[in-house]
Amino acid sequence: xxxHNKVVLITGANSGIGLELTKNLLLRGWEVxxxxxxxxxxxxxxxxxxxxxxxxxxxxADLADFSSLRNALDQIKKSEAKIDLLFNNAEVxxxxxxxxxxxxxxxxxxxxxxxxxxxxxxxELLLKGQDKTIINTSSNSLLFLKxxxxxxxxxxxTPFKKLIGPYANSKLALSLWTNGIAPExxxxxxxxxxxxxxxxxxxxxxxKGMPSYILLIRNLMFTPPSKGASRLYDAAFNNEITGxxxxxxxxxxxKLSGHKExxxxxxxxxxxxEFLVYFYLNSIYKLxxxxxxxxMKIKTVGDDLGTYSxxxxxxxxxxxEDAIRYYEKIGLLPxxxxxxxxxxxxxxxxxxxxxxxxxxxxxxxSLNEMKKIIKLPIKENINAIPELKRTLLxxxxxxxxxxxxxxxxxxFIDDKLESDxxxxxSK
Length: 427
Ligand SMILES: NC(=O)c1ccc[n+]([C@@H]2O[C@H](COP(=O)([O-])OP(=O)(O)OC[C@H]3O[C@@H](n4cnc5c(N)ncnc54)[C@H](OP(=O)(O)O)[C@@H]3O)[C@@H](O)[C@H]2O)c1
Prior knowledge:
Low-confidence stretches: 291-304
CATH topology of the largest domain: Rossmann fold
Strand content: 5-15%
Strand order of the largest sheet: 3-2-1-4-5-6-7-8
Order of helices and strands: EHEHEHEHEHHEHHEEHHEHHEEHHH
Bound molecules: NADP nicotinamide-adenine-dinucleotide phosphate
Mean pLDDT: 88
Number of domains: 2
Largest sheet: 8 strands, mixed
Number of strands: 11
Shape: globular
Radius of gyration: 25 Å
Distance between the termini: 48 Å
């Protein structure tokens, strides 16, 4: 059946099973939003044609980096009107422990946590779609595990094992949260399943993360990735049950399922307390490093003149000219460089700083608070400056409350829209 105007989002769409799934869905008439790190391979006529027609839209991100992921998700939210179907398919499998920019072991970060964040972030778009289905690509390697320790997965202390080490554990954690979150998503009309695509000849199965026996049987026994792609597709459409793990086309019990609440709680915690406030904290770190009150000097015409007049920088940033002069007067902005005629002139660093101030103002931080932060010694580690750490934690707490308030408002509006009632309790 040809699908028209339906949108599927696929992570890792440029390689292996994700690439076959992308081509398969394009041929069925779907529009594909590809959340990928590397380019699509050359010489793929279906891909080239779909890119030209805008049936295939590319969003670039390194999923192991919150900053990159945040930017891509914001782009997706701006550009896509809805998502009907979501495939969390990208994965990593290395031959040793590695760590994400956020400091957690990378198999957990990319294979378990990031699909959860993408699910949370794109839920609103899924609710606008028709199929409202999420498929998380898992692996039957999870069936070989006999024990599960979440802390060790995030921060390993045991020797590395290929396939049945961090990779299998990350996939088990993925299937556990898929199962754990299903009732909550179901109440909103969203179905979610985790699926093993079976053994496929892809980059993964000839990579260094695989034990040597896999490499031996791969060429003889593994299927082309189009088979794995069709297993994922079938799991989306040939099954109505939510929360299950599908292996060899059948619902399969998830081992160690007593850990699902623990996994889910930890993911919620990282998502809310880290990912959602990431940009707020990042802004403060940046502000802190850009501004050094001790280094503020009256700058004169020099080698590196800026490129904006006060009027231009005001238009670019949205700060009024009066505000810019005032911030300079109170020491929040460094003294502006001057042209020979005495007019202020600004560069990109000033612009970035003004944008940070706007961002911090939105968090409710007063100008005095901002000034206090920038007076602290900036060259030392944040944890070595208790005052700064305390301020950051206080603001994080405030932001969390703001987020909860905003979520309540969104829920109230949704409720009013869905129930088609008046904004008043009674007429
Ligand atoms: N092949 C099998 O036999 C098999 C068996 C069981 C389960 N699976 C699962 O099937 C899914 C697809 O795997 P595959 O076999 O098709 O492997 P693959 O060809 O190696 O594809 C992996 C994909 O993940 C992407 N990726 C990895 N790290 C990323 C990052 N930090 N940011 C963004 N993207 C990243 C890769 O992007 P780059 O191209 O940029 O690296 C690539 O697109 C995986 O979830 C895998 O665990 C596969």
